[in-house]
C-alpha cells in the first residue's frame, strides 16, 4: 500500500468533488439470483456466507477502483483486496474478521474457516491493514428488504449488507445493499461490480478445481 497523488489518477475530479462532502457515501440495492450458490454450497458442504464473500472479492478484484481508497484526506493505493465478515464469538457478541482474497476458491475457503474459527474463539478482531477491505454484514436469520450503512467519517471502505435469502419455487433470491465512497468509484463502477457479482454467483460451479 502507498499514498498516491489523486490528481494523477482517474479519480482526480471525484477527489476534488467528494472528499470534503458531509455525506460522500452512495448506496445501491440489487436483488441477486443466488440459486447456484445455494446449490453449490449444499452439494459441496460449503458455507453460503463464504461463497458470497469469495464472489464479492472475485468481482472487486477485476475493477481497478477497488484498489484505491480515501483514508483521511489521502488517497491510498493497495496491491491486495480482502473481504471482511462479522463473526459471532464465544462471548455471545460479534467480532470482525478480514479474509485475504484469493482467486483459488479452495484456498479462500480454508482461510475463511481457519480465521473465523480463531476470531470466534479468541474474541479478537483479525485486521489486514495492508489490504483494501470490503466490509460485509450478513443478517442471515432475518428477512430484510435493505439497509443503508452508517457513515462514521473514519472508515470509507465499501460495504455490503444482506439478510436471509428468499425462496421462490426453484429460485433463491437475495437483496443486497452496496455502500461506497464516491471518491473511490462512480455509479457506473458500482453497477459493473454488482453485475459481475451476479455473473460470478451464477457461474460458481466453474470455479471449483
Q: What is the element layout, followed by pairings?
A:
Blueprint: E1 2-4, H1 12-18, E2 25-33, H2 35-44, H3 48-61, E3 68-71, E4 74-77, E5 81-88, E6 94-100, H4 105-122, E7 132-138, E8 159-162, E9 166-168, E10 171-181, H5 187-202
Parallel strand pairs: 5-7, 7-8
Antiparallel strand pairs: 1-4, 2-10, 3-4, 5-6, 8-10, 9-10
Helix pairs in contact: 3-5
Mean pLDDT: 95
Class from helix and strand fractions: alpha+beta
Gap from first CA to last CA:
31 Å
Number of strands: 10
For the largest beta-sheet, the strand count, sense and barrel status come to: 7 strands, mixed
Shape: globular
Radius of gyration using CA atoms only: 17 Å
Question: Poorly predicted ranges (pLDDT <50, ≥5 residues)?
Answer: none
What is the strand content? 25-35%
- Classify the oligomer: single chain
> What is the H/E order?
EHEHHEEEEHEEEEH
Helical stretch tally: 5
Please estimate the helix content: 25-40%
Tags for this model:
209 residues; alpha+beta; 7-stranded mixed sheet; 5 helices
Amino acid at each position: 500500500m502507498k499514498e498516491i497523488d489523486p490528481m494523477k489518477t482517474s479519480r482526480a475530479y471525484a477527489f476534488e468533488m467528494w472528499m470534503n462532502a458531509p455525506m460522500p457515501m452512495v448506496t445501491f440495492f440489487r436483488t441477486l439470483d443466488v440459486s447456484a450458490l445455494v446449490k453449490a454450497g449444499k452439494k459441496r458442504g460449503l458455507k453460503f456466507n463464504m461463497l458470497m464473500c469469495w464472489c464479492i472479492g472475485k468481482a472487486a478484484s477485476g475493477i481497478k477502483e477497488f484498489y484505491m481508497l480515501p483514508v483521511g484526506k489521502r488517497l491510498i493505493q493497495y496491491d491486495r483486496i480482502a473481504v471482511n465478515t462479522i463473526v459471532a464469538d464465544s462471548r455471545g457478541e460479534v467480532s470482525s474478521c478480514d479474509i485475504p482474497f484469493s482467486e483459488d476458491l479452495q484456498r479462500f475457503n480454508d482461510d475463511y474457516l481457519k480465521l473465523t474459527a480463531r476470531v470466534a474463539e479468541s474474541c479478537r478482531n483479525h485486521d489486514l491493514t495492508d489490504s483494501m477491505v470490503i466490509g460485509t454484514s450478513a443478517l442471515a436469520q432475518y428477512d430484510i428488504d435493505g439497509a443503508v450503512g452508517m457513515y462514521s467519517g473514519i472508515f470509507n471502505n465499501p460495504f455490503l449488507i444482506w439478510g436471509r435469502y428468499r425462496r421462490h419455487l426453484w429460485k433463491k433470491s437475495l437483496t443486497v445493499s452496496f455502500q461506497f465512497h464516491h471518491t473511490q468509484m462512480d455509479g457506473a463502477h458500482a453497477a459493473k461490480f454488482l453485475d459481475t457479482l451476479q455473473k460470478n454467483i451464477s457461474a460458481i460451479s466453474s470455479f471449483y478445481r
